[in-house]
Every structure is written in structure tokens, then in C-alpha cells.
Amino acid sequence: MVTRSARVGSRSARPEQAGRNRHPEPASACYGRDMTSAPRLSPWFADMRRMLISAKPADLGMQPTARLPRVWAAMMEMRLEHGYVTVASLADGTTSLYMSSGGGILGGGEYQAVQVATFSFLGAVEAGLDKLSPVAEPPLPAPGTIRLHALTYWSPGTLEAPEAEVMEGRHPLGWMFDAGNDVVTQLRLLQQHGERSSS
């Protein structure tokens, strides 16, 4: 579990700076989960999440493309031990993981394996966008659920699903969640590699 902000690479003027398995290991298993504790939201997590959700894609230099004509960012959020984890993938390749305890991984999208997973996730959310419900502001997930959010060029969309259904392959839209989980997996592998290299 990440207990402090772990910076990987660097980027400027981005919100974060202020072949997959069918049923991959759930992201919650990577970072621990305990639904009995009330969530704790660090100011850093709340600020990063708010900055991303309220960002204007044009201010970040992003415009609709043939590959991603509607979606400029995709988020997957899970309820974990003492709080939440958010993985965010942007159409410029920026990829980060924020934990409500205050830790995170920033700048992961600069690495090829993470970037491949990032664009697969964005492509999945673009393809399934019509299955998401419009929402004024993307909410955090309820206990035992996972949420997907699409940040589009006009308004956000959201989809919530029981984690058990997603991880057991029983949810009809599980392929979108699988794509998001692949991003978490690649960030986790990147973090582990960095820890080994520094030891």
C-alpha cells in the first residue's frame, strides 16, 4: 500500500501536479480493503480529484481526435481500506493514481506499458460511453462497488457496479472495468520496479 506520495517522472501544467487477463487480480487486493472504517479524505486527494474533475480539456491542450472524439479522461475509483483509490488516465497519456490517505503515483503515463494500458482504458470508456449515466459531478463509490467516470468534452458520465460481479466476470460491462484495472496493475508493477531499483 502506498503510504506517501510517490512521484514517477514529471509533467508540467497537469492536474496531478498541483494483453490483459479476463479476470485480473482486483485493484482492491493490491492496496487492501476494509469496509468497516469510515473513509478519510486527505486535503491532497480532495484537491487533486477536484482539479481533475473541474479541468477544462482545452486548457490542457486536448481536443477531440478520431481515436477519442468524446472522452478526454477516464477515472476508475474503488473503496479501499480507510478510504478510496482513484486511477486517472488522460487523453494526452498522463496517468496517475491518487489515494485518499494522501499517497499516490504520479507521471506513470511516461512509461510505455502504462501508456498502452492508459489508451486501452480510454478506448474502452469511449466505446462504452453510451452506457454511462450523465452526472453533474462524479461521486465516490459506495462500499463494495467500483465506479467508472468519463470526462467528456461536454459533461461527465458515471457507471457503478458491484465489485464482486466485475471481478467474477458476471457484469455485462466488465470489460471496461478490466481495462481500468490493467492501468492499476501496470502502475503497481512500475512502483515495485522502482522500489527494487532503489533498494
What does this structure look like?
This protein is an alpha+beta fold and 199 residues long. The protein has one domain (5-198). It has five helices and eight strands. The longest helix is centred in the C-terminal third of the chain and has 25 residues, at 174-198. The protein starts with a strand and ends with a helix.
SSE blueprint and pairings:
Elements: E1 5-7, H1 27-31, H2 43-54, E2 71-80, E3 83-90, E4 95-99, E5 104-106, H3 112-127, E6 133-134, E7 145-152, E8 157-162, H4 163-167, H5 174-198
Parallel strand pairs: 1-5
Antiparallel strand pairs: 2-3, 2-7, 3-4, 4-5, 6-8, 7-8
Helix pairs in contact: 3-5
- Summed over residues and divided by their number, the pLDDT gives a mean of 82
Distance between the ends? 17 Å
Q: Could you tell me the number of beta strands? A: 8
Strand-residue fraction? 15-25%
Report the biggest beta sheet as strand number plus sense, adding barrel if it closes: 8 strands, mixed
The shape, in one word, is globular
Nearest-angstrom radius of gyration? 15 Å
Low-confidence blocks of residues? 1-26, 28-34
What kind of assembly state do the chains in view correspond to? single chain
Q: Work out the count of structural domains.
A: 1
In DSSP terms (H or I, runs of 4 or more residues), the helix count works out at: 5
Structural class assignment: alpha+beta
Q: Helicity, in percent?
A: 25-40%
- SSE order: EHHEEEEHEEEHH
Strand line-up in the sheet with most strands? 1-5-4-3-2-7-8-6
